[in-house]
Amino acid sequence: MTKRLNLKDVADLVGVSEMTASRALRGAPDVSEKTRLKVEEAARSIGYVPNRIAGSLSSQSVNLVAVVVPSLNSYVFPEVLSGISSVLKDSPLKPVVGVSGYDLDEEEGVIREMLSWRPSGLVVAGLEHTDNTRQMLQSAHCPVVEVMDTDGDPVGHCVGISHKEAGRAMGRQILERGFRRIGFIGTKMPQDFRAIKRLDGFCEALNEAGVSLLDQEHYSGDSTIQTGRDLTANLLARSPDLDCLYYSSDVMTVGGYMHCLAAGLSIPTDIALAGFNNLQILEGLPLSLATTDACRREIGVRAAEIILSDLANEGPRKFEQMQPKIALGESL
Fold it and tell me: Which residues are listed as membrane-spanning (predicted)?
């Protein structure tokens, strides 16, 4: 944690009183538009977030841990939340969730609002943020843990996996099994930075062996089984010689599997399939699908443990990279 910023820091930058700065940030009608804009810009420039806890509580924190994730529609982030909750349940702290929708500007707004309530900790998925968000995180009054990803420049504590290495590892496994005509299907592209990093690592592994992606489909929407089915049909219609498909999400892999069953394709004889995340949705399928376990619950557990440890005794910034595990299943 760094020195706690206060309203006086903002007021001094603009050259107004703390009362004027406070009224400007509240949007009071008796403050000129010019002054309001100057105060808001000064607050953004140093990462100051207004404190919404009133009166005698203004110097304290509430017993909440803010958790900011891109989505709750997928099966991925609820497991992170489960890990966080499992640790916090025996403490006074409770998690509260904000959703960014894979939009960095929306993430900035969510984090600003959450920090304004003075939480006891903040967990945010990913390492990519707007400049204003990075400034807020650097100036936050509480422990900040960035989770899921280690390929980048963390602001605070960091717990996750290398998505680039995860993609590279799957690429090598696919090559070792003799597949060379390989395609890729990804969702939330290009908003999902972690999926892009996996694809980069995957392509690097292929290129090292003198192999390139034969074809690929990028879809900007969410991962669904139907979308996986449709995109697989499109890709195989366009490139029928593909012998392996790598998906950005297990949900999409299941959709691809459904298409192959309907089309009478044998897996992996006619085409091999591999996904990512080792989601519970894979359990009970007639065929076990290749995937990578991204340590989601473990990441949530460690994030919560770091926040509790930091609050008890502030220590050095922690950087923990977990090792994802590949399960080859029967589809490779």
Answer: none
User: What is the rounded CA–CA span in Å between residue 285 and residue 246?
Assistant: 18
**Residue corresponding to tokens 């001094």:** 12
Quote the DSSP letter at residue 290.
B
CB 97 within 8 A of CB 81: yes
Mean pLDDT computed over every residue of the chain: 92
Structure tokens at 180: 């060379």
Q: What domains does the chain contain, in order, with CATH numbers?
A: 7-50 (1.10.260.40), 62-162+296-325 (3.40.50.2300), 163-293 (3.40.50.2300)
Cα 217 to Cα 18: distance, rounded to the nearest angstrom = 54
- Residues whose CB is less than 8 angstroms from the CB of residue 97 and which lie 6 or more positions away in sequence, other chains included: 67, 68, 69, 72, 81
Contact (Cβ atoms closer than 8 angstroms) between residue 4 and residue 48: no
Q: What is the pLDDT of residues 73-124, one digit of tens each?
A: 777 899 999 999 999 998 989 999 999 999 999 999 999 999 988 999 999 9
Task: For the beta carbon of residue 209, count every other beta carbon within 10 angstroms.
Answer: 13
In terms of pTM, does the model score above 0.90? no
SS3 per residue for 208-254:
HCCCCCCEEEEECCCCCHHHHHHHHHHHHHHCCCCCEEEECCHHHHH
Spatial distance between the Cα atoms of 179 and 244, rounded to a whole number of angstroms: 6
Measure Cα distances from 148 to 42, 194, 241, 256, 298 in Å.
Answer: 31, 8, 35, 25, 10
The structure tokens 């903002």 sit at 10
